[in-house]
TrEMBL record:
InterPro entries in the record: PyrdxlP-dep_de-COase, PyrdxlP-dep_Trfase, PyrdxlP-dep_Trfase_major, PyrdxlP-dep_Trfase_small
Cofactor annotation: pyridoxal 5'-phosphate
Family designation: Belongs to the group II decarboxylase family.
The protein's name: Pyridoxal-dependent decarboxylase
Taxonomic superkingdom: Archaea
Residues with the N6-(pyridoxal phosphate)lysine modification: K308
Keywords: Decarboxylase, Lyase, Pyridoxal phosphate
Gene Ontology annotations for the cellular component aspect, listed alphabetically: cytoplasm
Annotated organism of origin: Halococcus salifodinae DSM 8989
Classification lineage: Archaea, Methanobacteriati, Methanobacteriota, Stenosarchaea group, Halobacteria
Length: 494
């Protein structure tokens, strides 16, 4: 292929681009049309068998062959995230407006680190961030930045929290001087159900995972505020220095939402940085259930993911600050108390707000999606899935061979297959683990596993607004089939 055929910019390039995009689109569409199942069931060994010829051949095969090969080798054996029986993780069916925006932003290839690499994109990201701050009722001085997702947003929250605290408490500039001698005394508080990336961030920030104090949960799997009070009082009398409190709005397994207002009160009382991890539940702000997020408006920082309940293609997240001046704690060029987001020419360069340098123009996706279908349209999708989760929970509760483990708050439903009531927890645990194994090979339903009080359990994350209760019933039947196969195999072995 000649240079003209490989790059946009000439008539030949335009034709080649159209043809390539059309062929890629056809490949995606036929991968959907070829099967009703969310996964082919291929094992890891069988999959690696498809890649025996060289990844870097001496001469290429041409683009058409390369696209077609990617379709047969990879798309055909990908989990079909748009299939209604793909219901394992917080991995959404990407909506078509987002897919169109993704095609546009990758072709434009703007990089959000500096204005001269992304002029309109820089301005638009600011506009989207302002709209999001408005959605969560954050103060006028709020600000934010797009991130790769909740992991990066949670990391950035604890980075800023740590550095603000070390400056105020120990007079230490962590950016230049590193951690203070007192670093071992630093503590972060979150619930037992908080996402693991809080601990991961503590590790990456040089504090260690042991710096994270996990607060017990109540019967609804929300942070227990009495337990929080007891822990805060105890830390207060000792040598420890708690500096941040993390509330979760939508835990990964159960979708539970911590009592955000009570947590905001404790953070204010103990002068803690208040971070709300709303990676999963942030989308409630669009809906009639926005009151479940009351208290989020008092957060120092918020993590929200668009590649979950906002239906945008991966990756797409945002990190919001109640007070935009807090970006100053990580500014590269300015003294941290003099946060300069504009260089001397008055041009906004976003690099100082991000832990990334070259950065994708992901803000285009929610922008195009919101413009296309409005808040109302997006809210209707989310509500559809909340209703489905409630109905799915009833279905599971009524079934004599299943055990429902909670009433869903969002659209995650955790349950166990328990065909005989008399089964011990150990036997149920083994059975559900084996059923999950079988499901992976079966391919008719993609379902997650999790541990609840040490017992292996199953989980639906019902993110697909086009899925119906019939789809859920079908998944339960597939689980029954796999369960029967497991029992048969055990009898053969015995
Ligand atoms: C998904 C999730 C994360 C991690 O976010 P990524 O987008 O995967 O980086 C963190 N916290 C919660 C509550 C999540 O649901």
């Amino acid at each position: 292929m000649s240079g003209d055929e490989l790059f946009l910019g000439s008539e030949t390039g335009t034709t080649a681009y159209r043809e390539a995009m059309e062929r890629a689109t056809d490949a995606v569409v036929s991968s959907f049309d070829s099967t009703d199942n969310p996964y082919s069931g291929r094992s890891p060994e069988a999959l690696s068998g498809a890649f025996e010829d060289p990844v870097i051949p001496e001469t290429g095969t041409g683009l058409e062959a390369a696209i077609d090969e990617a379709a047969t080798r990879i798309l055909a054996h990908s989990v079909a995230t748009s299939n209604p029986r793909c219901a394992a993780h917080l991995q959404c069916p990407p909506m078509i407006p987002g897919l169109a925006a993704e095609a546009m932003l990758t072709a434009a290839n703007q990089s959000l680190d500096s204005f001269d690499q992304a002029p309109a994109a820089t301005v638009l990201e600011g506009e989207v961030v302002d709209a999001l701050c408005g959605l969560f009722d954050l103060p006028d001085v709020s600000d934010g930045v797009f991130t790769s997702g909740g992991t990066q947003s949670n990391f950035q929250a604890l980075l800023l929290a740590r550095d603000r605290y070390c400056h105020r408490q120990f007079g230490r500039d962590v950016q230049s001087g590193g951690l203070p001698p007192e670093a071992e005394s630093l503590r972060v508080l979150c619930s037992e159900e908080a996402h693991f990336t809080g601990k991961q961030a503590a590790h990456h920030l040089g504090l260690g995972e042991d710096a994270v104090v996990t607060v017990p949960i109540d019967e609804d799997r929300r942070m227990d505020t009495d337990a929080l009070d007891a822990i805060l009082a105890e830390l207060d009398t000792g040598d420890a220095n708690p500096f941040a409190l993390v509330g979760t709005a939508g835990t990964t397994d159960f979708g539970s939402i911590d009592p955000l207002t009570e947590l905001a009160d404790r953070a204010a009382e103990y002068d803690l940085w208040y971070h709300v991890d709303a990676a999963y539940g942030g989308a409630l702000a669009l809906t009639g259930h926005a009151d479940l997020l009351d208290g989020i408006e008092r957060a120092d920082s918020v993590a929200v993911d668009f590649h979950k309940l906002f239906y945008q293609p991966i990756s797409c997240g945002a990190f919001l600050l109640g007070d935009g001046d807090d970006f100053g704690w990580m500014a590269r060029n300015a003294a941290y108390l003099n946060p300069e987001e504009h260089d001397e020419t008055g041009v906004p360069n976003l690099v100082a707000k991000s832990v990334q340098t070259t950065r994708r123009f992901d803000a285009l996706k929610p922008y195009v999606a919101f413009r296309a279908i409005g808040r109302e349209g997006m809210a209707a999708l989310v509500e559809e899935t909340l209703n489905l989760a409630r109905d799915a929970a009833s279905l599971i509760e009524e079934a004599t061979d299943f055990e429902l483990l909670h009433e869903p708050t969002l659209n995650a439903v955790v349950f166990r297959y328990r065909p005989r009531e008399a089964m011990s927890d150990a036997a149920v645990s083994r059975l559900n683990a084996n059923v999950r194994e079988q499901l992976l090979h079966d391919g008719r339903a993609v379902v997650a596993r999790t541990e609840v009080t040490g017992v292996t359990s199953l989980k639906f994350t019902l993110l697909n607004p086009t899925a119906t209760l019939d789809d859920v019933a079908e998944m339960l039947d597939v689980i029954r089939d796999c369960g029967a196969a497991v029992v048969r195999d055990e009898e053969v072995v015995a």
